[in-house]
């Protein structure tokens, strides 16, 4: 009997090896406490002041040369004085099905089961950069000081740990950012998603991003 | 895009291409050597030049490849994390496990193969280590199991490097089921080239011996299949539309990496040796310098293929 069990385990190993990263551990899909944080970025409200970028750098001690958050301006569409710019938030999407976590060989990249936040444990990271290549949203980088993979973690270890909202949300002068629990039907974020038209970037890849966007009224949506 | 070797979407650079090449050579050589021993040599395999070349190059290529990989980490001295923390969803993590088993089985298989040589060597020089012979004779009892296991592991290793890249959803050209098969077969063809090259130069294996003939025989069908796989890869991308199509055009429709592909991979690595085998006389083809030249072309072609796939593959993002 022990022999057949060994065969089973070996067989499973072979199956996992041959099929690649398709199966996921329970902890990655399960939401404990019913908390699954997400964010809405309202492109119609964003004025591109980059206060969020500065606040993120300050609160999370992000060194020069790299960034966890970028506001990308495109446009203008139309002629002055009617010229309109479009803004796009470039940061971790906190995918529900994160390819960066699937590929990480050491478990350094993980999805926190209690909050749904995708985070990096720098002590375990070897810096293979597999996650950087695997993230289709191109938001990861090697932290120049720690030499480990890094990216936005919704201020999980800074503001959130102190009971505050993420730094970008706190600092936004136009309230373009809404952070909250996607699993709570009464939360502000869920109501917003129910009542406005939103889109998410690259949904066709099956990554299930938790960054929702309210499209700007001008120009084309390029998810 | 700034240059062929530095562009925004590039994450893994040239050391990875060399690593992919070396692993392919090792996996290919081992696969061929096991078949060679079973089909052609049967006994006395340890006196064959091609087997001797495999005994040295196959483990060495893996060791050098892994050292390159370790120093490519941003934190090389934490590499041991890879060996204690495993993640079943990560192709790389499963690969680390595979490497360990592959090396163990390869060393065991070689020890059994060279058991007489090892025994007489220990007898003459290191009498204190004679207990090693005992271990080898225990291993020798499993020779019948070791060989198929060795082939399985070598094939898995050859395909592994392809799976490593095909797991990347970011890049449509890499996120492709053809890649593991392509890497396996190009690895086998590089293994055959390395076996002939080192077998006849370092180990003075006569070029008209049955073993050189055997390796030579597999080369052509493998190369033709490789050509077909490349066709399948790009036709699949073209018909895939969207970013897949864009990736294919960016890769082979012009520019630096497109030239590497058409002139290096296809021209030098595949077509030129095929044409030479058609136009050169039998006498020329059976000369040592011809064989060395063809083996070098094959190896360069596969090395360039690894560079091409890695760089061109990362040019286009999904
Ligand atoms: S956006 Fe990138 S880094 Fe963030 S969870 Fe998704 S794959 Fe991972
Ligand atoms: S760089 Fe670090 S976090 Fe990213 S995959 Fe490698 S070990 Fe994991």
Automatic annotation (TrEMBL), chain A:
CDD domains xref list: PsrB
Pfam families linked to this entry: Fer4_11 (PF13247), Fer4_4 (PF12800)
Alphabetically ordered keywords of this record: 4Fe-4S, Iron, Iron-sulfur, Metal-binding, Repeat
4Fe-4S ferredoxin-type domain sequence ranges: 37-65, 83-114, 116-145
The UniProt record lists the keyword NAD: no
GO MF, any single term: 4 iron, 4 sulfur cluster binding
Record InterPro entries: 4Fe4S_Fe-S-bd, 4Fe4S_Fe_S_CS, Cyt_c_NO2Rdtase_NrfC, ET_IronSulfur_Cluster-Binding
Name recorded for this polypeptide: Cytochrome c nitrite reductase Fe-S protein
From TrEMBL, chain B:
Main localization (coarse): membrane
Pfam families: NrfD
The keyword Nuclease is annotated on this UniProt entry: no
Bilayer disposition of the protein: Multi-pass membrane protein
Residues spanning the membrane: 16-37, 49-71, 91-114, 149-168, 180-203, 223-240, 260-280, 292-312
InterPro entries: Electron_transfer_protein (IPR052049), NrfD (IPR017566), NrfD-like (IPR005614)
GO cellular component, one term: plasma membrane
Keyword NAD: no
Cellular location(s): Cell membrane
UniProtKB keywords: Cell membrane, Membrane, Transmembrane, Transmembrane helix
Gene3D superfamilies xrefs: Formate dehydrogenase/DMSO reductase domain
Similarity field: Belongs to the NrfD family.
Full protein name: Cytochrome c nitrite reductase subunit NrfD
Organism: Limnobaculum parvum
């Amino acid at each position: 009997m022990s022999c057949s069990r060994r065969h089973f385990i070996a067989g499973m190993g072979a199956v996992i090896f041959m099929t690649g990263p398709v199966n996921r551990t329970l902890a990655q899909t399960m939401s404990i406490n019913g908390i699954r944080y997400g964010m809405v970025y309202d492109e119609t409200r964003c004025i591109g002041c980059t206060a969020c970028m500065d606040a993120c750098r300050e609160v999370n001690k992000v060194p020069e040369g790299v960034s966890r958050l970028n506001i990308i301006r495109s446009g203008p569409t139309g002629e002055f004085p009617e010229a309109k710019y479009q803004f796009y938030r470039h940061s971790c999407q906190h995918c529900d099905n994160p390819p960066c976590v699937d590929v990480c060989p050491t478990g350094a990249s993980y999805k926190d089961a209690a909050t749904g936040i995708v985070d990096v444990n720098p002590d375990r990271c070897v810096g293979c950069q597999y996650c950087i290549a695997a993230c289709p949203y191109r938001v990861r980088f090697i932290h120049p000081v720690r030499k480990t993979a890094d990216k936005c973690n919704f201020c999980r270890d800074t503001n959130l740990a102190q009971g505050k909202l993420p730094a970008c949300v706190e600092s936004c002068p136009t309230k373009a950012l809404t952070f909250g629990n996607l699993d709570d039907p009464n939360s502000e974020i869920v109501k917003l998603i129910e009542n406005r038209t939103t889109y998410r970037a690259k949904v066709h890849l099956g990554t299930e991003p938790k960054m929702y966007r309210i499209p700007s009224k001008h120009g084309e949506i390029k998810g | 895009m700034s240059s062929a070797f530095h562009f925004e979407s590039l994450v893994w650079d040239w050391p990875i291409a060399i690593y992919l090449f070396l692993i392919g050579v090792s996996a290919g050589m081992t696969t061929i050597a096991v078949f060679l021993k079973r089909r052609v040599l049967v006994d006395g395999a340890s006196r064959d030049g091609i087997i001797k070349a495999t005994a040295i190059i196959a483990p060495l290529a893996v060791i050098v490849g892994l050292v390159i990989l370790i120093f490519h980490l941003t934190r090389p001295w934490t590499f041991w994390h890879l060996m204690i923390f495993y993640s079943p969803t990560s192709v790389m993590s499963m690969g680390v496990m595979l490497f360990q088993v592959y090396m163990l089985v390869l060393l065991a298989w070689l020890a059994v193969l060279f058991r007489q040589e090892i025994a007489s060597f220990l007898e003459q020089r290191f009498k204190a280590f004679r207990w090693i012979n005992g271990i080898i004779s225990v291993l020798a009892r499993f020779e019948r199991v070791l060989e198929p296991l060795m082939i399985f592991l070598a094939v898995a290793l050859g395909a592994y490097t392809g799976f490593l890249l095909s797991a990347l959803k970011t890049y449509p050209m890499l996120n492709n089921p053809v890649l593991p098969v392509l890497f396996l077969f190009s690895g086998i063809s590089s293994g055959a080239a390395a076996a002939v090259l080192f077998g006849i130069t370092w180990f003075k294996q006569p070029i008209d011996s049955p073993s050189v003939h055997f390796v030579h025989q597999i080369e052509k069908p493998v190369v033709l299949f490789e050509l077909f796989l490349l066709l399948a890869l790009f036709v699949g991308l073209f018909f895939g539309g969207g970013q897949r199509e864009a990736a294919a055009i960016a890769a082979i429709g012009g520019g630096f990496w497109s030239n590497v592909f058409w002139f290096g991979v296809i021209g030098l690595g595949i077509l030129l040796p095929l044409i030479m085998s058609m136009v050169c006389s039998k006498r020329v083809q059976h000369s040592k310098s011809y064989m060395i030249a063809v083996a070098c072309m094959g190896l360069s072609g596969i090395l360039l293929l690894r560079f091409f796939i890695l760089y061109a593959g990362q040019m286009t993002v999904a």
